[in-house]
Amino acid sequence: MWMICKKEWQQFFSSLTGYIALVVFLLLNGLFLFVFPDTSILDFGYASLESFFKLAPWILLFLVPTITMRSIADEYKAGTFELLKTMPLTASQIVWGKFFGALVIVITALVPTIVYAISIQALSVTGGIDVGGALGSYIGLVFLGAVFTAIGICASSFTSNTVVAFITGAFVCFLLYNGFDAISKLPVFNAGMDYYIEMLGINFHYRSISRGVVDTRDVIYFLGIIFLFLYITQRNLNKR
């Protein structure tokens, strides 16, 4: 499994595309947080990373499918999937290897953003950032990245076209992240069902963890979504 994980890492950084994807992710975050006036942290007047943690999921929604779109689709396209199946690896080991390889890349993209927290803390005159809230939000981002990774790999297992894999992965990520929030706001669900429908969405649990309290229910939700999509991927590989 770790051999597959290492292969994913090396494959992503073997081309300029991988580096460009990470640079664009960090550049967009930097521009929105420190340059653009409507979202600049420097214009808020107080030390907070709230705008970053609201913006990052939307950028991850496109970054993660970019990372995962080649995971299995390229194996189909290049004809190496048959070779992969001849190795002493189960479908489960292949899927989890792909997952952890892509997740390490996502975490690698998130690590440099700690500089934002250090910068805001250094610029703060009094107090500083809410360390507990920031730590909880980073944990939430890792879980969010893991869920998006599982969805992206699942989408990649259904096609040999990387563009289709990217679009499908990004669309499903968007639906699960924001779709249930949108549905819960429909007037027909105002009688009390809106809260329970909102609970089905990723955004609800991400916001919960971002408050600085890691609730077991939120962790179980994220792990459940991850296992579900990786199980679907495993079944799909077995059929092939």
UniProtKB/TrEMBL annotation:
It is a multi-pass membrane protein. The gene is gldF. This is Gliding motility-associated ABC transporter permease subunit GldF. It is found in: Cell membrane. NCBIfam families: ABC_perm_GldF (TIGR03518). Keywords: Cell membrane, Membrane, Transmembrane, Transmembrane helix. The chain crosses the membrane at residues 12-35, 55-73, 94-118, 138-155, 162-180, 219-237. Its main location: membrane. It holds the Pfam family ABC2_membrane_2. The lineage of its organism: Bacteria, Pseudomonadati, Bacteroidota, Chitinophagia, Chitinophagales.
